Amino acid sequence: MVSWIISRLVVLIFGTLYPAYYSYKAVKSKDIKEYVKWMMYWIIFALFTTAETFTDLFLCWFPFYYELKIAFVAWLLSPYTKGSSLLYRKFVHPTLSSKEKEIDDCLVQAKDRSYDALVHFGKRGLNVAATAAVMAASKGQGALSERLRSFSMQDLSTIRGDSSSPVPPPVTVRTSSKQSKPKTSRSASESTGSSDFKMLL
Hints:
This protein is mostly helical. Helix content is 86%, strand content 0%. It contains six helices and no strands. It is elongated. The C terminus is likely disordered.
């Protein structure tokens, strides 16, 4: 555990931050020699980081594994051994030069396929989102119609309840016998008056 922590600190400080600072100075000073030197280092370090991802999984049990990693980073950075320049000139540059065309073709194909895959999955995502929105809208509309239907049924039930209530009987006005008698006497006097008028004629 201690060796793992020390190796991570060494790789972080001396394998990443220290070369990054000197790469900045090379770019600032526009020194072509230093610029090429640090570019070669970063290519080797990228390959080292890629290999380290797998070796940490399968070779971490190996004795002195982390100590060997520290020694390898120091060998890459040392101005006496010039390990990064040696590895680049002897192995990396000849291999990349011979396989450069195939690598470029693979990268172009991967770029095109990734673009097509992105468009395809983007369309599928939009279709899924549109389907989900339509389903949610239909469910909401169905719930609204059911709610309105329940309200209308409640209104019908209240109307039926009102119609089943008993209708009050019509009010009849009864006249007293005292009021009816003057009407008969008046009608009799009117009839006698009309008969006297006829006799005078």
